[in-house]
Amino acid sequence: MIILSEIMTATQIEQNDPNDVMVELRNVNKWYGDFHVLKNINLKVSKGERIIICGPSGCGKSTLIRCMNRLEEHQEGDIIVSGITLDDDLKHIDTVRRDIGMVFQQFNLFPHLTVMENCCLAPIWVQKQPRKEAEATAMKYLERVQIADQAQKFPGQLSGGQQQRVAIARSLCMNPSIMLFDEPTSALDPEMIKEVLDVMIDLAREGMTMLCVTHEMGFAKTVANRVLFMDAGEIIEENEPNEFFDNPQSDRTKLFLSQIL
Amino acid sequence: MAVLITSPSPSLPPPASSVGVVGWLRANLFSSVLNSVFSLIGLFIIYKTVPAAINWAFIQADWVGTTRDACTSDGACWVFVGVRINQFLFGFYPPSEYWRVVTAFSLIGILVAWLLVERTPKKGLVGIFTIFCYPVIAYFLFYGGAFGLPAVETHKWGGLMLTLILATTGMFFSFPIGIILALGRRSSMPVAKSISVVFIEFWRGVPLITVLFMSSVMLPMFIPENMQIDKLLRAMIGIIFFQSAYMAEVVRGGLQAIPKGQYEAAEALGLSYWKSMFFIILPQALKMVIPGIVNTFIALFKDTTLVLIIGLFDLLAVVQAAFADPKWLGFSVEGYVFVASVYWVSCFSMSRYSQYLEKKLNTGHAR
Ligand SMILES: Nc1ncnc2c1ncn2[C@@H]1O[C@H](COP(=O)(O)OP(=O)(O)O)[C@@H](O)[C@H]1O
Ligand SMILES: [Mg+2]
């Protein structure tokens, strides 16, 4: 695996400063009503790290990453993103959201706006960029995800894979330092998965800090520094990807891997 | 045995019986015995009524003249409407000031056309002018009392002019109020939510007639003599609140149909509540409920006739009053047909425009 070794060396170069923590979770607990969905989660993500989160359906993966930009509220523990503690202060939430991009399973593009408008809306109205500048940035990222020629189309006119690439570009337009992906390829037809993963691999190569919920093991092996395995709201196992897949420690991990591979 | 097709099959024309007039008739009117029976009954009814109606309204009708002596043929006598058309249009507005009403309506007509027709320049500017400047201009044109325009008291307003004023102010103000109420009702803030719910449920729970009665009879009893508000204004406010409650429920239906992912994507991008509502949620929600919005507009347009019970002379009331003219007894059918046609043309145009709008705004997204 040539790509893998490239990335591994790149990783080592980037991981120069262990104090450069982008996301930190300390003893985070969350309940939905009586249901204890996140149990004592501890996690540190350094700058440039690429973390894959996997685990059986309903184990709390989405909830975990959605807590990081306050789409969900946690009840106990601390979540610190780029040095800002997520609490009830709306300013903190705002600041964190500007710094974190998120890509959803269902794309969630705005169907009444063109691809270009989807990309420019937040830069113009949240970051107060001049329209010209926002459009130039959007074009740059649309080119990067190879969809610039569709800029004037509406999302409904694009294929699933194209829509997801637009969604990635839309997040990048806010110039985030962290990207969250929640099963970005799960809603795609098989032949479109690769085009999206390629974009994500590209991002990883450029040193983006990424947290990605996915079951794409090939992708995990290619880009991840660490794989987290969750079950029933807990992080059960955490390892470097090759080790994780070839030599799983817990029985639950082994069972899970046997089911998806 | 394996099958391999080496060249594409040619596309053949469809069989003759499925296209053209015959094909259409067969598919749509005579596809089964029951369908054929209904088609024949329908054709028979049309044959019996439509020619007779056309005959009455157009062919055998009287069009010119100034007195009822002109009504010589068997059909409708439109002379009645012609003679009184000014009153039907303007009520008791002084004829020397008609130009003000005409100017006000022409102006809004031009502005609205400007906004609705595609590819006219400076839509934003025209929109702002329409929303913020036009109401002021219209007020001074209709009511006057400034800029050398003599004041025309509202009890002189009437006819189609009054109907249009009531309907347009009703639509103009109920739309934003309804949106705010709908957002309030879905808000997580208890105060905003309860105010909206109480307001909506109160106004939806009372008939418009009651609202109008209360505004014209009961309200004056609670307000000191020297602070009396104009009767028309009170009726307008009643209509606006009543209409806002309905509008709110229509808009709420649209808001509820927006997938949660849209809210989440907006939040994740850091858009504030109001920005995400304005740019993301409302455009989609309103588009979805265009038929409902137009439906309430049409209902409002027709409901304005109820103001006749509090002594305001809208189109219907003015026409009905004309029936009492001893010189023109016996022409109520013409009067009612005239009123009905004015309402029908207005409402049908709104309905068609809404269909056009739905098509135009369809960006081809499948959810
Ligand atoms: N809004 C909610 N209210 C109540 N329960 C929820 C809610 N969202 C998710 N859950 C539950 O929390 C658990 C974790 O959900 P989620 O984080 O979406 O799982 P995953 O992404 O790992 O499949 C699931 O059992 C789900 O049913
Ligand atoms: Mg999930």
Low-confidence stretches of chain B: none
**CATH architecture assignment name of the largest domain in chain B:** Orthogonal Bundle
Proportion of residues in extended strands of chain B: under 5%
Number of domains of chain B: 2
Question: How many runs of DSSP E, i.e. beta strands of chain B?
Answer: 0
Task: Provide a quick synopsis of the model.
Chain A has 261 residues and is of the alpha/beta class. Chain A contains ten helices and ten strands. By secondary structure, chain B is mainly alpha-helical.
Give structural notes.
The complex is a heterodimer of chains A (261) and B (367). Chain A has helices spanning 2-14, 61-68, 90-99, 115-125, 131-144, 160-172, 190-205, 217-223, 241-246, 251-260; strands spanning 21-32, 35-46, 50-54, 76-81, 84-85, 100-103, 178-182, 209-213, 226-231, 234-239. With 261 residues, chain A is an alpha/beta fold. In chain A, the strands form 2 sheets. In chain A, strands 6-7-8-3-9-10 form a 6-stranded mixed β-sheet, with helices on both faces. A 4-stranded antiparallel β-sheet of chain A has the order 2-1-4-5, with helices on one face. In chain A, β9 (226-231) and β10 form a beta hairpin. In chain A, α5 packs across α6. The mean pLDDT of chain B is 86. Chain B is built from 15 helices and no strands. Chain B has 367 residues and is an all-alpha fold. The A-B interface holds A 69, 71, 94, 97-98, 100-102, 104, 106, 108-112, 121-122, 125-126, 154-157, 170-171, 174 and B 259, 261-262, 264-272, 275, 279-280, 283-284, 287, 361, 363-367. Adenosine-5'-diphosphate binds next to β2 and α2 of chain A.
